[in-house]
Amino acid sequence: MPRLLIADDHPLIQDGLRMLLGQLPLSEALHVDAALDGPTLWQACTQNTFDLVLLDLHMPGFAELGGLSAYLEQHAPRQPTALFSGHITETVWHQFREGGGRGVLHKSTPGPVLIGALQLLLAGERYFPTLPVTASGPQPPDTHGKLTPRQREIYQLILQGASNKVIARQLNLSLGTVKNHVHDIFETLGVASRYQVLSQGLKNG
Predict the structure, then answer these.
(1) What is the model's pTM?
(2) Which of 48, 59, 50 is nearest to 85 (CA)?
C-alpha cells in the first residue's frame, strides 16, 4: 500500500490535499499520514518509510531541528520528499534539488496540474518545474501543434490522471477510439507512456 506523509501545520492545507489525493487513480489504496510540526515530522521519518513526503518548510519546530539542511542529510536519502510551499526561493530550489529532493510544488499550483505532478512523484519520477505554473494549466508544447481538437481534449484529461475508460465515458467515445487517439497523441508528442506525457505537459505549464 503506497504511503504518503503531509508535513504541514495548517489543517486546511491538510484537508485540501487529502481531497485532492482522493482524485488520484487507486487513491483508495493510498495511506496518508500527517505531521503538524518539526518534531512529529522527524519522529515519523525515523520510524516509518514513505513513498512520498510533502514538506512545508515553515512548520513550527522545523528550523529548531536544523531546517532543510538537516532534513536533507538525515531523511532525504530514504524518504522521497517534495517541497510543498507558498514561498520557494531560487536558493532553496537549488539546495533541495542538489541535496536529493524529489520535487518542488507551489501551493498556488492548479489542482489538475498538481494531480499530475503527484502521480509523477509517486511513480518515482522527479518534478522540478523551471517556470511558474499558470492558472490556465499546461498545454501541449508549441513544437507539437498537430493535435486535433479532440486529441487536445484527451490530452488535458490525461494530465488530470484520467484512464482510457474514464476518458471514453466523459467524452462519450468508444474505448477503442480513445486508445487510438492516445496512441496518436503519444506519436505526435514523441513519448511512450502517460508519465512522459505528464512530465512534458507539466514542464510546459
Answers:
(1) 0.65
(2) 59
48-64: per-residue pLDDT in tens?
999 999 999 888 999 89
**Structural contact between residues 97 and 128, judged by C-beta atoms closer than 8 angstroms:** yes
Q: What is the CATH number of domain 142-203?
A: 1.10.10.10
Residue recorded with cell 505532478: 117
| CATH architecture type of domain 3-122 | 3-Layer(aba) Sandwich (3.40)
Query: What does the pLDDT look like over 5-50, one tens digit per residue?
Result: 999 988 878 888 888 888 887 767 789 999 999 999 999 999 999 9
- Going 15 to 96 to 139 to 177, the CA torsion angle's sign is negative
Instruction: Decide if 75 contacts 44 (C-beta within 8 A).
Output: no
* Number of Cα atoms under 13 Å in the Cβ half of residue 155: 27
Q: Where are the domains of the chain?
A: 3-122, 142-203
